[in-house]
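Pilot study result, target chain (140 residues):
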Amino acid sequence: MRVKGTRHQDAAVAGGETTVAKEQVFEALWMPRWYGQDPALAQGQESVLQFRNPVPPTRGGVVFMAAGLDRPRWDARCRVLGLKHDVLGRIQAIEVSPREYRFVRHDGSVVLVDADGGLLREGLAHPPPDWTVRVVLQVL
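Predicted structure:
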């Protein structure tokens, strides 16, 4: 069965269509807590991820990725189909370490952010007002 996703999901999935059930593709918000507490993500990554609410979401529900001491947590094995930030645009990967966060953009450029509170180190003239990333995921 061919199912159209949301506009963001369509952009993340080649050809704008997918053959998975619509309820298996969803969008979650990656909202950094900094200090190396957040999950690293990459386009195409398949792994067990943790969420602050059940996955897949109920109709119209918002899903938040878990970080740090967030409780309760729900685990789900997922594939990352797309990452997008309002200012940075499409992202290939978010690399997380205790010292820095690296946002690797679609064009290969890198934005470095200090893990100690989210201060911009390099890659942009000015920091965005919010570092939240929208992540399109497929439940496996």
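One observation from the pilot: Residues 3-84+127-139 form one domain. A full batch analysis is planned for the follow-on phase.
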